[in-house]
TrEMBL record:
SUPFAM superfamilies named among the record's database cross-references: Carboxypeptidase regulatory domain-like (SSF49464), Porins (SSF56935)
Residues passing through the membrane, by range: none
UniProt keyword annotations, A-Z: Cell outer membrane, Ion transport, Iron, Iron transport, Membrane, Receptor, Signal, TonB box, Transmembrane, Transmembrane beta strand, Transport
GO molecular function, one term: siderophore uptake transmembrane transporter activity
Protein name per Swiss-Prot or TrEMBL: TonB-dependent receptor
Taxonomic lineage from the root: Bacteria, Pseudomonadati, Bacteroidota, Flavobacteriia, Flavobacteriales
Signal sequence range: 1-24
Domain of life: Bacteria
Domain TonB-dependent receptor-like beta-barrel: 342-892
Membrane topology: Multi-pass membrane protein
Major localization listed first in the record, in broad terms: membrane
Length: 945
């Protein structure tokens, strides 16, 4: 027995020794081509499915693995992925890797616009991406400003952080002014930021980019028809930081200088992430800012910030992620500026393209709430738009065996947006009766009304001092107004503007579920997407008496005729016509459901077909108040000498209901053919659909039944492209044809007889665009890269009609103009970015030229927005392992390009009214343009730990 025990002990010792001897480790160091270590590169060892990231020295170590053959994959954004088979023999194995630059991120896996994540080179879509380094080379001014770096994307961020416009390939007709993201889906981590849009309620209100964003992926058209909820024009997906194997983070302090007066920007960004216990990881960060804005105003233009986080559990066969965002933010948006000279617009009335904002100054008013006049709404234009978004979600991915993978992404959000700002900045001459009668729009319908004619006194609302006293009693007999004292109003006018109050909220739930099955030749995806939104929307407009000058002042206005009581045309703040210009009170429930199927078929080793179908149904159900003036005698306060509260609009008790379904089938067929490992050609045919947004009901039916649903716009697209990736150069080029049908267009106009605003009847139109977009990078020598991207296109208004209301809501004098065959408005025929980057050791410098070609200012092609160029530059230096400093300058030479056009300067005018005939008949007329933002610069101090 003793001998048996000795033998067993000997055998056990041999076995343990053999097991110990068979265990090994792999040590590696990852460098770039300049032998600089790469930190946070992702390392994956299969089939053991072990994942690591490199440390600050570019090193990683895999311990306690058995001898044998493994596949080692190393990836890092901006570099080509290495996939290498290694043989582990000895106890310790030391390896060195050098990653080559991936110049257009073609070797990087993309997750946007595809149901099966794959390398960009392998996809049959026109996809672009921005990494964190590229995002840091822009001035931090909203989502649209950042996306101007995406090739082929038209962006207009001239209004600031919000109220922006984004579109591609001529799919733009309904994406103007207050609906600038109409066709595209703005996403965070694969789900839409918001499910609904309507006037002044777009997804850019609820999105801010900061250090928590790892990269941006963009799909232009194509597969977005089958991969996005009601967003067939493209997808812009902001992807957050994820798993980091080591505790670390970054703090960034920013000081900005903007405009002619070097207005200040103060901002702090943070992000930290790393492992917890038991394969749990976290990431948390956000920003806070205070921004005086690029143009001059007497208040802080933007302030607030957000906090984002995620907690991830990494398992052998998948992951679980819980994530959230809290956004609490105040921002504003800029108006247009007055100009004259149709051929070469120049600023008018003392205004400047580079600095004038024409925003009402800060003041505190209490305006009766038309929904309940016993309550008031506080109004201060310095508040701008106050946005809040509380969003939380769960993302699950699990390999269930036998090559089946389940994914589910679920998010709930509660959104609020409160607008307290001004709308319109028209020139209203003191010779125009509108300047006075707008104070009481009910006057001409009442026998006891006091008409605002005689001696009208304008006082500075802040100081109370008299600025001017005029006699307007001769206006109806054709005589001009007369100044009665030495005081004068600037430009003999007031500004036609509204104190614009909007209160909007939405509770939203959205979910996307996919089930994938991989076989030897097919990757099948089956899925279901759903979105539910419950939204409320209230709009109220009051008139503001404001001086018409570059730095407007509020005016307290009274009628002071001899031997008669003083009559107040405005309150003490200069606000008049309380709640009588607009009244919209609606609620709606939106249900969006979609089922989809996709197959990526491996026809041959170098040929793949991508076939997808999506059936979508959208239900809009809600109601809209009928309205009327609440009091016709004495107004809300019962005092006949205070005219400013006589016309407040409120509900009559009647409601107009709507309950409509929109159902459509979309499809997309793609082909990817690999000529070799670095060259592919691809093609895609897509048919998408765009259901109406809620503005269709909110804007187009004023005190009339909502007797029909809107048209579904049809989008047909065909593209053919090539992708090339080599060591020193990369190129993608895509020829495309797009068609947009059943475009509903309507104008926002003023009835000269009743001083009420209305929308004209909808016209349905068609546009077509043929073009070529490209993206390229070339590195002629080490450390220097040259980037060139852009689009060349021919946008056409194929069939286009515009309704002309003739300045009144009465239809007897209405006409319809036919502009079919004209160039499509606001789409440049040429747009490009050309830049160069130098990077060596601790130094990085860049210079970029952005060119925006000429655009038509309206569909009549009566006015052209001239081409312009802007130049951006910057330099960064890494002081040591932890500290770095960057300087970034946007619009270096303070170019004065024009981004938008709003037509003649009269109150209620629209851009479509500036026809060639109108311009020829009014060569000296003034009009409203929206200049691009002036030069902005910043210095950033970064600490990485």
């Amino acid at each position: 027995m003793k001998q048996l025990k000795i033998q067993l002990l000997f055998l056990l010792t041999i076995l343990v020794s053999q097991i110990t001897w068979s265990q090994a480790s792999v040590k590696g160091t990852v460098y770039d081509v300049n032998s600089n270590p790469i930190e946070n590169a992702h390392v994956l060892l299969e089939p053991s499915n072990l994942a690591f990231t490199t440390n600050s020295n570019g090193e990683f170590i895999v311990q306690n693995i058995s001898s044998g053959n493994y596949i080692l994959t190393i990836s890092y954004l901006g570099f080509k992925t290495i996939e290498q088979t290694i043989e582990v023999k000895n106890a310790d194995n030391t390896l060195t890797f050098n990653l080559e630059p991936d110049l257009l991120n073609l070797q990087t896996v993309v997750v946007t616009g595809t149901f099966d994540p794959r390398k960009s080179l392998e996809s049959s879509t026109s996809v672009s991406s921005l990494n964190s380094k590229e995002m840091q080379q822009t001035f931090p001014r909203g989502s649209a400003n950042l996306l101007q770096n995406i090739p082929g994307t038209f962006t207009d961020a001239s209004a600031g952080e919000v109220f922006t416009r984004i579109y591609t390939r001529g799919i733009s007709a309904s994406a103007e002014d207050d609906m600038g993201w109409y066709y595209v889906s703005l996403q965070e981590d694969g789900l839409p930021v918001s499910l609904v849009q309507h006037s002044y309620y777009s997804p850019d209100l609820f999105h801010r980019a900061d250090l928590t964003t790892k990269k941006v992926e963009a799909i232009r058209g194509g597969s977005s028809s089958i991969t996005a909820l009601n967003g067939p024009g493209g997808i812009y997906n902001f992807i957050s930081n994820g798993i980091s194997q080591n505790i670390g983070g970054e703090v960034q302090l920013t000081r900005g200088f903007q405009g002619n007066n070097n207005n200040a920007l103060y901002r702090i960004d943070t992000n930290i992430g790393g492992p917890l216990e038991n394969n749990w990881y976290f990431n948390i960060g956000g920003h806070f800012r205070k921004d005086d804005g690029a143009r001059d105003a007497n208040f802080t233009f933007s302030k607030g910030g957000q906090l984002k986080f995620n907690i991830i559990k990494k398992g052998k066969n998948g992951h679980f992620k819980f994530y959230g965002k809290v956004l609490d933010d105040h921002t504003n948006r800029y108006h247009g500026v007055a100009a004259t000279n149709w051929d070469n617009p120049t600023p008018a009335f003392g205004q400047e393209f580079s600095s004038t904002s024409l925003l009402m100054p800060s003041f505190d008013a209490n305006i009766p709430d038309g929904r309940n006049v016993n309550k008031t709404n506080r109004f201060n234009p310095s508040k701008g738009v106050h946005t809040q978004d509380f969003a939380f979600g769960m993302d699950i991915q699990q390999n269930t065996g036998n090559n089946w993978t389940l994914k589910n992404n679920l998010k709930f959000s509660a959104k609020q947006a409160n607008w307290q700002t001004s709308i319109s900045n028209a020139f209203v001459s003191l010779n125009d009766p509108t300047a006075y009668v707008i104070s009481d729009p009910t006057a001409f319908f009442r026998n006891d009304a006091i008409l605002p004619f005689g001696q009208v006194v304008f006082k500075d609302a802040l100081s109370g001092s008299e600025i001017a006293r005029v006699d307007n009693s001769g206006l109806f007999s054709g005589s001009p107004f007369q100044y009665l004292t030495g005081g004068m109003l600037p430009n003999d006018a007031i500004m036609g503007t509204s104190a614009w109050y909007k209160d909007m909220d939405a509770d939203e739930w959205m979910n996307q579920f996919t089930l994938q099955k991989k076989t030897e030749t097919h990757d099948f995806t089956f899925g279901f997407a759903a979105g539910l939104s419950k939204t409320n929307h209230f709009t109220q407009g009051s008139f503001g008496y404001v001086t018409y000058e570059p730095n407007p002042r509020m005016l307290q206005v009274t009628l002071e005729n001899p031997s008669q009581p003083i009559v107040a045309l405005s309150d003490e703040n200069g606000v008049s016509s309380y709640g009588s210009l607009f009244y919209v009170n609606t609620s709606a429930d939106i249900t969006q459901l979609a089922g989809f199927v996709n197959d990526r078929w491996k026809v041959a080793d170098n040929l793949h077909l991508d076939l997808g179908l999506r059936y979508e149904t959208i239900k809009h159900k809600g109601s809209k108040d009928r309205f009327a003036p609440l009091s016709l005698s004495g107004g809300i306060d019962g005092d006949n000498t205070t005219l400013f509260d006589n016309g407040t609009l409120g509900p009559t008790g009647e409601k107009d209901d709507f309950d409509y379904n929109y159902n459509y089938l979309s499809y997309s067929i793609g082909v990817n053919y690999s000529i070799n490992d670095n060259t592919v050609i691809f093609s895609r045919l897509s048919k998408g659909n765009k259901a109406p947004e809620l503005n269709y009901y909110f804007n187009n039916f004023s005190n009339v039944p909502i007797n029909g649903k809107g048209e579904i716009q049809k989008i047909n697209q065909l593209e053919l492209g090539i992708k090339l990736s080599s060591k020193n150069a990369s190129f993608t080029g895509t020829a495309f044809w797009s068609q947009l049908k059943d475009i509903g267009t309507s104008n926002f106009e003023l009835d000269d007889n009743t001083n009420t605003l209305f929308y004209t009847p909808i016209q349905f139109n068609t546009s077509k665009t043929l073009g070529f977009e490209w993206e390229s990078v070339f590195t002629p020598i080490n450390n220097i890269s040259i980037n060139f991207d852009g689009v060349l296109q021919d946008p056409k208004a194929d069939k286009w009609k515009v309704y002309d209301a003739g300045g009144t809501a009465n239809t007897d004098d209405d006409t319809i103009h036919d502009f079919s065959g004209n160039t499509l408005a606001f789409n440049p025929k040429l747009m490009f970015n050309l830049g160069s980057t130098f990077e060596r050791n601790r130094l990085l410098a860049f210079f970029k030229w952005q060119y925006m070609g000429e655009r038509e200012g309206n569909v009549s092609n009566g006015f052209q927005l001239a081409a312009y160029s802007t130049f951006n530059t910057g330099i960064g230096y890494k002081i040591n392992k932890h500290w770095s400093v960057d300087i970034v300058v946007s619009n270096l030479f303070n170019s004065e390009g024009l981004a938008n056009f709003f037509g003649a300067i009269s109150f209620g005018a629209s851009g479509s009214g500036a026809t060639p005939e109108f311009i020829q008949a009014n060569p000296d007329a003034s009009f409203v343009v929206v200049p691009i933002l002036p030069r902005s610069s910043l210095i950033k101090l970064n600490y990485v730990f």
